[in-house]
Amino acid sequence: MAGPININPNIIPQAQAGMSEESIAASAEMVVTGLEKSLNIKKAGQVQKNQQVDLKQIDEYVQKLSETTTVNEINKWEQKEKQRQKKKEEDKPKRRALRKAGKSRARAFGWISRKAPPRRDVILNAGEIDTFGVTVNSESLKEYVLTYTRSRLGIDEGEEGRESLVSIEQKIKGLKGGESFLLKMKDGINRMLIAELSRAIKQSILNKVNAGKKFTEWLISSRKSEEILNYALYNEYTSGLNRKAVRGLTGKIMFDILSRNWDLTMKQLEDLIELAKESRLDLPSWYQTFSRERVTLTSDGKVKISSSIIESELQKNALLDEFKMLHIHLALEEGLIRTLAMWLRLRKVNGGLTALRVGRDEIALALTQAKRIAWAKIITKLKEAHLTRVFSTSEKEFEKYSGRIAILTRKAKGLGLGISMEGLKLVEARLVQMALDTANYKLELLKSMQSLEYDRKREKDIHWLEVASVRLRATEERDEIIESIVKFLGRLFRFAP
Questions:
Q1: What is the DSSP string of 467-488?
Q2: How far apart are CA 229 and CA 373, in angstroms?
Q3: Is the pLDDT of residue 29 over 60?
Q4: Which sign, positive or negative, has the C-alpha torsion 98, 99, 103, 109?
Q5: What pLDDT sits at residue 12?
Q6: CA angle at 177 for the pair 171 and 182, rounded to the nearest 5°
Q7: Euclidean distance between CA atoms 303 and 192, whole angstroms
Q8: Which one-letter DSSP state was computed for residue 417?
Q9: Greater confidence, 119 or 288?
Q10: pTM
Q11: Distance (Å, rounded) from C-alpha 36 to C-alpha 292?
Q12: Distance of alpha carbon 145 from alpha carbon 147, whole angstroms
């Protein structure tokens, strides 16, 4: 028999372990309702005075209440707690591994202070302007985006295309809020064009990097090779970077390295179009892809200019770019402190690539590209050194740049790209020939000017250019003699018994 029953409705039962107030209330309501029916104490809203109470039945209901709301719930709670503790013990090694990986994981260019990630997608909504009585809908906005893009890229569609552009602009300007909407729309289109065209130039340069000999010829002959090569590792994080945006000692060192070797200024669209043409990017074909894949109408009737890269790919590619930059500058730099800082940062970047599960094949490809880009950077520096040496004003300065050329040539040999000595000599001969051609052109120009009007200072420049040309020819002849001797000795020992 159970103890005395408290049926005072003002007293709230105490919650048992593992039970919520809702579960207790629900269980109690079930028991009380059953008890009420059994006792039949409520008929038509009036209490029956002569009703007999069955104490045995009350005791049974109380026993059910105790079993269902207390014992069973506690048993379930204890089972769940045991399972939770068991899972916690099993997960301890996993959590330790994640913490260990987290210590070595690096965010791409983590030494740069950024308030927010770069914006990529642009959404244009015709509903932002008052279109009452005027036909400016999503289809018209999309046509405007495409027409405006063609106009900015210099892809002329004739008078009809220009009239269409002006017509839509006039319609928008005549609407309430149209002026501000038009400025916002143009800003979004320009921003997306800069980002997407920069990526296209980057991919074009990477394709040339993989082209081998043709790429080297292009580097030597192109007047903007250094400028274009800067886009081999373009990304939103370093574009427009300045010293105020870096943090810590690592950030200062990395910024100094990048600012000396890469152009960090943010390009305007006009500059990018010139670079695209110089890198032989087919702009009309690129526009066709851009208009077909990037500019679309959403399901709710908005115009979307979408980025060609998603967030996860952006993070991975940016980290791979930093990986390449570090390897490039480890091949180019000589200072001990800078080299140490780059090795420490590279260790963090490697941890980040591992945490992102970047495959070995992808990392190996990135390393090969880094070596080829380093080779290209050395070739451009050699090109600059050769031209500067030609126009040096003294023998001391001439020898200074000759030493610089020797150091850069040695670095090119040490990159381990499998380039033969004959290949290196061909490149060097091509650079010397380029310097000679430039010197001869300037020499003839100075002589022509001197014949029109004599200038003593100009005479000095003419004399030095003649001396420099003779020395360059001597260097070229000497290299040819050395190369002939090397080939002769190679044949001699190869066929010796």
A1: HHHHHHHHHHHHHHHHHHHHHH
A2: 8
A3: no
A4: positive
A5: 46
A6: 60
A7: 13
A8: S
A9: 288
A10: 0.65
A11: 73
A12: 6
- What is the DSSP pairing of strand 295-297 with strand 122-124? unpaired
pLDDT-derived band at 170 (thresholds 50, 70, 90) equals: confident
Percent of the chain with pLDDT over 70: 70
User: Which alpha helices (H) appear in 210-232, and where do they start and end?
Assistant: 213-221, 225-229
pLDDT for 255-309, tens place per residue?
Answer: 988 888 888 888 899 999 998 888 888 999 999 999 999 999 888 888 898 888 8
Q: How confident is the model at residue 1 (pLDDT cuts 50, 70, 90)?
A: very low
Q: 481 vs 153, 403, 474, 477, 487, CA distance in Å?
A: 51, 21, 10, 6, 10
Number of other residues whose CB lies within 10 A of the CB of residue 251? 19
DSSP string, 398-415: HHHHHHHHHHHHHHHHTT
Q: Tell me the pLDDT tens digit for each residue of 317-352.
A: 999 999 999 999 888 877 788 888 899 999 999 999
Are 77 and 206 in contact, with CB atoms under 8 Å apart? no
CA 372 to each of CA 186, 242, 264, 327, 408: distance values in angstroms, whole numbers, following the listed order: 38, 27, 21, 11, 15
Distances (CA, A) of 275 to 212, 269, 460: 21, 10, 38
Q: Please give the Cα distance from 487 to 497 (Å, whole number).
A: 18
What pLDDT is stored for residue 98 in this prediction? Answer: 45
Task: For residue 281, give the amino acid letter.
Answer: L
What Å distances lie between residue 63 and 31, 37, 74, 197, 308, CA to CA?
A: 10, 17, 16, 78, 68
Q: Which residue has the tokens 């008078």?
A: 159
SS3 at position 222: coil
The radius of gyration of the chain's CA atoms, rounded to the nearest angstrom, is: 39
CA distances from 71 to 17, 65, 66 (A): 10, 10, 7
- Location of structure tokens 């010829």: 217
Residue whose structure tokens are 């079930």: 30
Whether 475 and 401 have beta carbons less than 8 Å apart is answered as no
- Whether residue 267 contacts residue 200, with contact meaning beta carbons closer than 8 Å, is answered with no
Question: What is the rounded distance in angstroms from the CA atom of residue 476 to the CA atom of residue 471?
Answer: 9
Q: List the Cα angle 247/252/256 in 5-degree steps.
A: 145
| Residues whose CB falls within 8 Å of the CB of residue 493, separated by 6 or more in sequence, listed in order | none
Q: Please, which pLDDT band fits residue 427 given cuts at 50, 70 and 90?
A: confident
The beta strand positions in 170-214, using DSSP E, are: none
* Distance separating the N- and C-terminal Cα atoms of the chain: 116
Contacts of 338 (CB under 8 A, 6+ apart): 253, 256, 257, 329
Q: What are phi and psi of 43, to 5 degrees?
A: -130, 120
- The whole-number average pLDDT for the span 219-243 is 83
| Tokens encoding 407 | 């150091």
